[in-house]
Amino acid sequence: MQESILMKVENVSKDYKMGEVSVNALQGASFDIYDGEFIVILGPSGSGKSTLLNILGGMDLPSEGKVIVGEEEINKYNDRKLTAYRRDKVGFVFQFYNLMANLTAKENVELATEMCKDALDINKVMEEVGLGERKDHFPSQMSGGEQQRVAIARAVAKNPLLLLCDEPTGALDYKTGLLILSLLHKINREFKKTVIIITHNMAIGDMADRVIKMRSGRIVEIKENENPIPPERIEW
Amino acid sequence: MKKLDRRLLRMVRHSKGQFVSITVIVAVALCIYVMLNVTIINVKNAVDHYYNTTNISDLVVELMRIPQGALEDLKSIKGINDVQGRVSFDVPLQVEDEDERVNIRIMSIPDNGGSIYKLYKAENSSTELNDDNDVILLKQFAEARNIKGSDIITPRINGRLHNMKVSGVASSSEFTYLMENEQSLLPALDKFGVAYVTEAFAQSVFGYRGSYNEVLITIDDQENIDDIIDLVEKKLDKYGVKKITKLEDQLSNNVLTQKIEGMEMMSSVLPVMFLLVAAIIISIMLSRIVNNDRMAIGVLKALGYSNIKVLSHYAKYALAIGLTGSITGIIGGLLLANPMSQLYVFYFNIPLAGIEIQYDYIINGIFLTSIFCIGSGLFGARGVIRIMPADSMRPEAPKAGRRILIERITFLWKHVTFSWKMVIRNIMRNKRRFAFLVIGLALAYAINTVPLFMTDAFVSMFELQYGEYQKMDYTIEFAKPQNEKVIVDLNHLIDAKKIEPRLDYPFELVNGWRKKTVSITGVPQETAFYVFKDRNDNDIKLPEKGIFITEAISKALKVEKGDTITVKSFLPGRDDITLQVADIFKQYLGANAYMNIEIMEKLLLESQMLTGVSVASEDDLKEKLKDVKNISAVRSAGDMKQAFVEYLDTMNIMIMFYMLFGGILGFALIYNATIIGISERTTEFASLRIMGFDKKDVYSMITKENFVMAGIAILVGIPLGTGMINGMVESFSSDMITFPVMLSPKIFIQAALASIFFVIIAQLATLKKVYNLNFIDALKSRIS
């Protein structure tokens, strides 16, 4: 594991207004993220893990606290800078894939790379995620696992610093879930990308370099895994 | 192609029904815009060209008699270019059907054809008068009566029939719109014509040897035309000037100008209304698409697309509508401009100078439409900015549900059925959209009221003028002024219930520097045929002394009831007199004034100068009086009615167009609103279906919403339509015609029926969408 710090999270809190209700989604989260790390953030639903992920990805701003990337405090970014941050530094993978229904697999990936300066070769990435043959299909013609591979390809092809995955296996069956985790593992190891997965599935924590456990908007434990096991051996 | 643009294309394909229906509105707007503007320019060019080649007269002076030699003297007035005299009289024409009364205006032309109001010869025809018994007939009349070269026509001049050979057929820029006089209201091409004869013939048969009764004048110095008129009037005073008409007041030119102005108004109002409705639909539709695309927008933003990029992605949808619509509309407009121009110039008997395509209209059209569409697109899609990428991943928080106002009136709300409660709540859920749709539908409704009003106005104008205000069965005009004895003579000839004498002479009414030449009609103070009403519809009686004027005259001269005006006589040697305006009376057709006949004779004229009589009789006067010397015209109420019915037929075409326009707008609004409503509420409808509502129930909910909306739109449309009608009346009213603003409920009911009809059609067009709704899928998918 490399020791250079990619990102610093300092005392980050977030309050939400959902309709007429105000929610305290995240309170005083602090930790560092190292370059090339594989982190799993664990917690039940409503523990604040998605909120944390959104803040790390520049999709949302904290109500309090700092998020530092390199020298920059991204919590001070305006909308334009946040957009640029998301464009150049972050790749997202969502639980429900969130593909554009009216674009083919390849076009969905191109949609992301069209704006990036040093995007990877799309065809190669599509091959890597195992979609070389299916790249001209529309999302509606693909299985959930395939759709999630497209989403991963879309995130990876941008060549981001950080890959953020929100319950990437949540909508998939066990076998397909494992394949997706292997793919993310491969991307972490071979492409040297920092990967953060958030999930409520405790078993996935076993493959991480570090596990951050959350409950009710707070970080309750940060645990380093001396010997992460390969995803193929995970069971749940 | 950029991936977002490709997505856009697929989006368009996916919603093609909506895309097409909005594009059609934009296309119709641009089609009308281009068609009318190109037509206006073509018609104006054709008119200019025609007026120039035939050398139209700037002034026409009618007078008692002027010797030929006196004309030269006029040329000495500075600013006058050319002068030409002629003899002109209206006489009856003998035709096969003895019951038919046809009048013809005999006009002399100089032997060399003259230089003013030169005839424009028809194809294969000559404009030569070889013989004193030759005539050249005006084309419209010749065609309407199917008279050809070398046919013989027989006008009755001073009681004597003359057989005259038609040597040619020609058009004249003086009669582009052929009407006998201001009171005719409508052209009747087969009932009134013009025949051009040699000077020698006209002067001999009318007893005008070496003299004329009309002078045509062209002017170089248009700016000082009024000063020139004064000088002409002074110079010709001794020859008994009756009337001086400027080109702008010349009957045919006046109608032509009005038609062009009417077209200009339509060309600016209609396209704007259409674009407005298109903008409403575009903005509603995009706000709905954006709402639906919440997740996709979140993903795009998460991928690093900026607000502007995402916003412009959706605005491009609107731009696509604008461009497709404007290009198809412009092509259509250009294609239609040609036949439309032809139709107009044909209608006005003007040779077409050539079709010119105006590129600046095309560029303006595309440019303005694009701005309009992009603007409404950005407005509709502005919700994009509010969507935070993180929020969009979560299911949307339920809309704040509040009790609506009527719910607080519990005893009322208690009696509302469940499905109606849903309908009412749903309407209230999106008030702004509801308001937009109502405004759009109200506009469509208002467009329908205008043509209905026009027909109604024409009918009532006619019925009032010739039924209520003027109750005689016949009006008879004399060829020469007669004395009172003529009434006794007439009583011997015909079986009349009543005969009233009538005077009709032009005078100049003056108030300060304002002046106006109008015809003053003298009728008995206790007239049985004329009914006068003031502006508040109260009956008013003709005063002993004093004058009644129309509203148009009162406006032109800036005089009110009780003011005094100067009346200048054109008769030689008569002094000006002052009269009090006794009242301002309602009259829809023609601009004239009325006086007590006795006072009029005494103050303004020589005695015994009756120009005609009004008659109540069940006799067929046309037949009985057809050989009577000195009668130039017998008009019956029936003739008027016939001409009117024919005119209404052409009105019907216009009404159909307007109805169609209103219909297209109403259809597109309801169709889009329904489609949008359905796609927005798929999950809601799916839930209802699962709970046991059947397709019909769901469909009837949408139907109820649309009809509530249409109902409110009609209520809003009533004042809107009234406003549009008032604008129409304002812009179409002239000295000659005042529209009665009588808004009968019939207009609004008919317009409402038309609107409801289109709502039903649009409603049916969306039926399939509800019936094909797959509620299982709708419930499963989070991504729509």
Structural class of chain B: alpha+beta
How much of the residues of chain B is beta strand, in percent?
A: 15-25%
Strand residue content of chain A: 25-35%
The helix/strand series of chain A, from N terminus to C terminus, equals: EEEHEEHEHHHEHEEE
> What percent of the residues of chain A sit in helical stretches (DSSP H or I)?
25-40%
List keywords for this structure.
heterodimer; A: 236 residues; alpha/beta; Rossmann fold; six-stranded mixed sheet; four-stranded antiparallel sheet; 29% strand; B: 4 domains; six-stranded mixed beta barrel; 26 helices
Please give a structural write-up:
The complex is a heterodimer of chains A (236) and B (784). Chain A is of the alpha/beta class and 236 residues long. Chain A has one domain: Rossmann fold (3-Layer(aba) Sandwich), CATH 3.40.50. Chain A has six helices and ten strands, in the order βββαββαβαααβαβββ. In chain A, the strands form two sheets. Chain A has a six-stranded mixed sheet with strand order 6-7-8-3-9-10, with helices on both faces. Chain A has a four-stranded antiparallel sheet with strand order 2-1-4-5, with helices on one face. Chain A is globular. The model of chain A has no long low-confidence stretch (mean pLDDT 89). Chain B has 784 residues and is an alpha+beta fold. Chain B folds into four domains: 206 residues, no CATH class; 192 residues, no CATH class; 204 residues, no CATH class; 144 residues, no CATH class. In chain B, β7 and β8 form a beta hairpin. At the A-B interface, α1, α2 and α3 of A face α1, α8 and α12 of B.
